[in-house]
Amino acid sequence: xxxxxxxxxxxxxxxxxxxxxxxxxxxxxxxxxxxxxxxxxxxxxxxxxxxxxxxxxxxxxxxxxxxxxxxxxxxxxxxxxxxxxxxxxxxxxxxxxxxxxxxxxxxxxxxxxxxxxxxxxxxxxxxxxxxxxxxxxxxxxxxxxxxxxxxxxxxxxxxxxxxxxxxxxxxxxxxxxxxxxxxxxxxxxxxxxxxxxxxxxxxxxxxxxxxxxxxxxxxxxxxxxxxxxxxxxxxxxxxxxxxxxxxxxxxxxxxxxxxxxxxxxxxxxxxxxxxxxxxxxxxxxxxxxxxxxxxxxxxxxxxxxxxxxxxxxxxxxxxxxxxxxxxxxxxxxxxxxxxxxxxxxxxxxxxxxxxxxxxxxxxxxxxxxxxxxxxxxxxxxxxxxxxxxxxxxxxxxxxxxxxxxxxxxxxxxxxxxxxxxxxxxxxxxxxxxxxxxxxxxxxxxxxxxxxxxxxxxxxxxxxxxxxxxxxxxxxxxxxxxxxxxxxxxxxxxxxxxxxxxxxxxxxxxxxxxxxxxxxxxxxxxxxxxxxxxxxxxxxxxxxxxxxxxxxxxxxxxxxxxxxxxxxxxxxxxxxxxxxxxxxxxxxxxxxxxxxxxxxxxxxxxxxxxxxxxxxxxxxxxxxxxxxxxxxxxxxxxxxxxxxxxxxxxxxxxxxxxxxxxxxxxxxxxxxxxxxxxxxxxxxxxxxxxxxxxxxxxxxxxxxxxxxxxxxxxxxxxxxxxxxxxxxxxxxxxxxxxxxxxxxxxxxxxxxxxxxxxxxxxxxxxxxxxxxxxxxxxxxxxxxxxxxxxxxxxxxxxxxxxxxxxxxxxxxxxxxxxxxxxxxxxxxxxxxxxxxxxxxxxxxxxxxxxxxxxxxxxxxxxxxxxxxxxxxxxxxxxxxxxxxxxxxxxxxxxxxxxxxxxxxxxxxxxxxxxxxxxxxxxxxxxxxxxxxxxxxxxxxxxxxxxxxxxxxxxxxxxxxxxxxxxxxxxxxxxxxxxxxxxxxxxxxxxxxxxxxxxxxxxxxxxxxxxxxxxxxxxxxxxxxxxxxxxxxxxxxxxxxxxxxxxxxxxxxxxxxxxxxxxxxxxxxxxxxxxxxxxxxxxxxxxxxxxxxxxxxxxxxxxxxxxxxxxxxxxxxxxxxxxxxxxxxxxxxxxxxxxxxxxxxxxxxxxxxxxxxxxxxxxxxxxxxxxxxxxxxxxxxxxxxxxxxxxxxxxxxxxxxxxxxxxxxxxxxxxxxxxxxxxxxxxxxxxxxxxxxxxxxxxxxxxxxxxxxxxxxxxxxxxxxxxxxxxxxxxxxxxxxxxxxxxxxxxxxxxxxxxxxxxxxxxxxxxxxxxxxxxxxxxxxxxxxxxxxxxxxxxxxxxxxxxxxxxxxxxxxxxxxxxxxxxxxxxxxxxxxxxxxxxxxxxxxxxxxxxxxxxxxxxxxxxxxxxxxxxxxxxxxxxxxxxxxxxxxxxxxxxxxxxxxxxxxxxxxxxxxxxxxxxxxxxxxxxxxxxxxxxxxxxxxxxxxxxxxxxxxxxxxxxxxxxxxxxxxxxxxxxxxxxxxxxxxxxxxxxxxxxxxxxxxxxxxxxxxxxxxxxxxxxxxxxxxxxxxxxxxxxxxxxxxxxxxxxxxxxxxxxxxxxxxxxxxxxxxxxxxxxxxxxxxxxxxxxxxxxxxxxxxxxxxxxxxxxxxxxxxxxxxxxxxxxxxxxxxxxxxxxxxxxxxxxxxxxxxxxxxxxxxxxxxxxxxxxxxxxxxxxxxxxxxxxxxxxxxxxxxxxxxxxxxxxxxxxxxxxxxxxxxxxxxxxxxxxxxxxxxxxxxxxxxxxxxxxxxxxxxxxxxxxxxxxxxxxxxxxxxxxxxxxxxxxxxxxxxxxxxxxxxxxxxxxxxxxxxxxxxxxxxxxxxxxxxxxxxxxxxxxxxxxxxxxxxx
Length: 1888
Fold this sequence. Notes:
Blueprint: E1 2-3, E2 7-19, E3 22-31, H1 45-49, E4 64-71, E5 77-89, H2 91-104, E6 117-127, H3 132-148, H4 154-163, E7 165-166, H5 203-207, E8 209-212, E9 220-223, H6 236-244, H7 246-257, E10 261-266, H8 269-282, E11 291-293, E12 310-315, H9 319-322, E13 328-332, E14 337-339, H10 353-365, H11 368-371, H12 386-404, E15 412-416, E16 422-425, H13 427-434, H14 440-447, H15 449-458, E17 462-463, H16 467-474, H17 476-482, H18 486-504, H19 520-524, H20 537-553, E18 564-565, H21 572-579, H22 586-601, H23 605-618, H24 622-634, E19 641-643, H25 645-660, H26 670-678, E20 681-686, E21 689-692, H27 706-730, H28 736-745, H29 751-761, H30 767-796, H31 825-831, H32 842-867, H33 872-901, E22 922-931, E23 951-958, E24 961-968, E25 978-983, E26 987-996, E27 1003-1011, E28 1015-1021, H34 1027-1041, H35 1050-1053, H36 1058-1063, H37 1067-1087, E29 1093-1095, H38 1101-1104, H39 1109-1115, E30 1118-1120, H40 1131-1134, H41 1140-1148, H42 1150-1158, E31 1175-1178, E32 1194-1197, H43 1202-1208, E33 1219-1223, E34 1230-1234, H44 1239-1246, H45 1258-1275, H46 1278-1282, ...
Helix pairs in contact: 3-4, 4-20, 6-7, 6-8, 6-12, 10-12, 12-18, 22-23, 22-24, 23-25, 24-26, 27-30, 30-32, 30-33, 31-32, 32-33, 44-45, 49-50, 51-52, 51-55, 52-53, 52-55, 55-56, 62-64, 63-65
């Protein structure tokens, strides 16, 4: 029984304590005065009566009622029902208050000024029961008695109220006499319990029905719930869903369960309380245990910043204060929104639960949704009444929890039964069996406090049960069968709802509420209403005392508690196996595991070895792992199984493999099952020394996880306690094996059932018996604790305690290897200092290990013993025992360790030596390692094919490469040899990792080495490799990777002793020489122009191995002559005799050969002859004084003297002023390159030259010189000299000039708004350059083509105003920064060669490729290049002036030349291009490639690789234009980083001369086998083999290539992704030959095995395809050579053979094509485009080749029609044959050009198939002039005639086509025609 109300208070406004208009409340009266013993009076109630603050108001407000909830210190909830009404204040009281206030504040509050003021007064009931309606009625009644002046005295009513006693739940069945006798208070109806005698005999009804009256003629029924463990919700849950909606409430529900902070806002207090109550109700059976304040007063708002979770309600009035809460989820009940802050992540229910819950909820709340689409909807599908709906929703949540927690009782460990049951929940097992170990939501819920309370409340096996227990035990089967069918679920939920409703409303029919409300006049007569009177304490107290006395004498109420055993429901195991995903053909796998174990124990080792790899793969599956533990169990006799060495080895390997995939939680209980086994299997090492399996399986995370040991301990304790009681009952213990079988049949008594039985009997036992049982249990737990201390020391102490293996945490510093880190912080934390510092004292180390293990075990023991109630004496004993246990164990381990070292080593595969290049030497000999698979799956066998990795072998470090050679560990592929290598110079990242080798028992130290040749070597050192050796290896590698100076690179050291490299013996000498030469250069720079300096280049013989040391000195002497007037000097007189030789070398350099080819100038004896030529070769930089990074000879305009150049160069970064590098032979336009301008030079550059200034400043004069320079370039162009006198602006006004915009940004938005078609045709030879992936914005240039376009960096060109009179124009573009290239390349490497496999869809290859943005960078470079090609082709010159002029500039300039000039697409040309643009013009190869120690920090930036990739993209699109093959590009890409050749070393010609590298190639070579230049090497190879040659090479004359540059047209270069494990990279060609020779020798041994198959298996990523499956022509050439060799002829060079075949082929086709010349012409012109874009591939058949060659021979005939045609047109022109069939409607339309352009007639074709409108010059024209995509068209509307329209055409013939980009104006021949066009276009649009 419980009191209905504990306290009654009257609280009023406190006039004495007003501060600044802020009132306070005070308690006027309180009954009873004394606190009840069982529930103390809660403090601070006056704050809660007026949560928004106590205030006076000018007019009376209606009375209000709400219930606030206070929680006391014992977390009991008190419900405070507040009834508030307003009373008028009389003047006198106010005057007093005002007077006192005037002293304090300057101005009286405004409220007081009104005629009458009202203050609030509250009547408050405090109760521990939550009966909102009853409280509302009772307080309302008291108010009514006061207002209407009813006859009943208030004291009586309140006295009765405070003495009401009601049953808590389903109360007693006695008929009580009235508490208060009638004689005492005659006029009261007495507070008797009127029994509801509705149907006598139904006694159970009486339990929950109470009628009470307060003695004022009222009567009300209180229905107490049948079962008080179920929450009572009224209709609050349904209300909550109505206010917020399903998804929002689910968010709140999950947030509350996962312990987030939730804040409700509403302007109604009662709604806040209801919402909070509703949220708690749906959380049942979990109870909310954090801060819970449904109504928070404004004064206490700071509570909201508490760090703990909460559910709080606040009036919307305070909304603004809640805005700055960062981690609070705010639910606005009035607005129906839930706001989740960004930093809060709510874990939602696991799917499919979430989906199903939402479905069922919407069926409850919105039943019409289901039938909304029915043609004949049922007549009424109204949702149930609110009260019922409320219970239905709660039913859904009950059903949800039953599914979430199903089978939870099977994961409870009972560790003590007496005196109190102690129960623990095995979280890992629960998650594992549910297959939800990854689920965030469930993990958080199980870790939460609510669940802990759930376990302690519902864990005990013997207690009263409720609806949830029944549901989770008996209905699981039903729930599972119905979950897929929402209607069945719905029925189940309706049943649950019915039970819930019945619980709350046991008699729905009874409603005997008779409570008076205040009459109308009572409320209106407010003016003369009296104050609420002071009550008589004595009278009320009398009532209370009476009742108390009465209760004392009354017999005690005995509520029979129905305790019973709690049913457990079906075990979890079956649940998952039925619907969990079972691994494919798992039965077969289990069979393999069983067989292998049988073989091991029968000593059939060979059989076992064959099965081993399959077993290790199978052990990835859970079933196989469980099977392994069961099988091994059968081989253990009396807790021991002694094995021989090999058996032991295999068993340990299997155990390790099994444990490797266990998570630290061990959710499948596999580590738990192995734990007894690792202490059972052992091998004898020597006399009395046994090694157990545990010493070899320690390296797993599981063993260092506290939770694992706890759950293991508890489950063992449970088994022992169970055995203890089974024994006492049966008298004999059950044997172990019986238990094993028993669990399968299900007849086994579970520990919980036993416990329940024991709890039932407990009260009946005698005291002695009870004490004995408690003592037995306690000692059981204690003995287990000792046992576990031993077990833990076994698994935590490493075999070699000096090694400190367990504690070498790999997980702290290294993110990538988290999966391999085997130390959780529990141990690691204490040891953090000792990881990195290798202390030299072994004993110190080992004691450290011992200490940390002792600490770990101590913490474990403390925790479990406290939880399971072990006595303090026992605990102390344990603490003293543990160090001894550990010490003893360390001693036994030492002996084992000593002996285990003496074991004969396991047979390891022989180490294979790699073949080395001539001159390559080993720096460190073989170190045995394992090559671990990385993220590339081909080699691991996952994608089919053999598992080549992991492989066992050795790593070699040579002066040139890092090489791994070994054999796969999988015995089935054991004969293959795996090779992985890369040049040491290409190493980009090295990091230490720790690796678990699946076949081995230990975590190994390893290295992960990444190379920019797209190779990754991930190795783990074998145990035999000492760790200091590995360190030496790393140091050597670093020295080789970053030598002090370029001289340390392999290209220089080749042929010298390898040791010299590492030690650098000659270092001091080098240094002095270096400084000498540096100083010389410095002085030269200082003194030039003043006097002669003679500089001697001194090069020591050690570097170059020159024969004559002396002659070199004479040769290399360079002098600088004084500046003399250039014109008067001839070249020969400028250069002194001693320089002649050097100069002749310079002339032979690539640049000069190319300049002469292009006719840009010659070096002749007299310069006068070439005066008429526009350009000259300047020697101004011959001493590299003007620009250090430019070549010695430069092309500059004829008219510019050298003195000007020296001044101009200062405006440019790095002094790289504009020089000519190529000239178009047809249009004579030139291509210039320079660096960007210095920031200060930009503005001067754009200043108008006409600005009058009295004295030209320095800046002005330079800018004038610059302009002169540019003008000189422009005047060199023939097109300019023809139209001289350009300053008249040819009729255009300057206003027009200023309106025309600049070039758009190339990355621009793609608008064509102000597009000027004529500029387009002028620019690109066709209307829209977009089609080409060219510039995408309006190319709205000035009306006349500029003679010179300057491509500049957008960021650089800010602030410059273009002058309309200049003849050049600046095109700002965005270029990629070097940093971008570097980062992009890093990501590209990670995408192509990932370091570890991943199943994350966000990490797939294509996603990573996209993230790297590599393709976007290529697109940008190609796009700019194509743009420049277009400009040059239309006759404008272009100056590329970006960044420092040596990265992007070089890329663009080289690509432009490659695209424009076929010569550069040959071997010689390409070499020349690279030598000229990349080497001579100073691309910083050493710096960008981080080749030396100095440039290490700048990192690797593959600018040249990017260029090669662009060439590769062009090659793919135009396969017939290049003489060299794709392999040639890969070869260069590999060797430009390999440092094998000197070609790509150093940053400029100047540096190469300084080191004497530049001209050495001419000197005689000491060692002919060592090529110093990559070009020589390629030439030699090319003579031997056609590997670099492209058989499809069939160039067109003067063909300019315009590739597509969209990202969709670019392909990933296979150089990045392919690998050949059989031989390593194929770019060191000598190695290839040697390996083949070795292979042939081995193959020639007689083979008696019978006939050999001709078939050869080709493996991906292992075999070299080009070698195994060569292309037809190579194969034929090879066959030819071998035949010649057989016949004894001298074999002809392949090139000669090929050329012969081609010429004969040509003549044949010529003869054939004579008769039908026209037809062949037609064929070739039709094919010509297709050839360009796709290339007709050579088949072996004669037809294919004849077509191809025919095209070549006809080139002369067809060149005329083809010449004017740009080679790329729309994407569709490959389908030329079908073009005509797709024409849905065609005809002539006039189209309006851009500004001031005439209307032009064009042939338009409407094409439905491609959904576009194309137009051509004429009907016959095949080449489309432009395309309007219909997808972009918004509307077709009749237009109006515009200016310049064709004459004599009616107005209706005009119409406009509006696209998203612009408006096209058209004009048809007549109105009829126009209508037809409009209709056709319209129909096309509507069809789409």
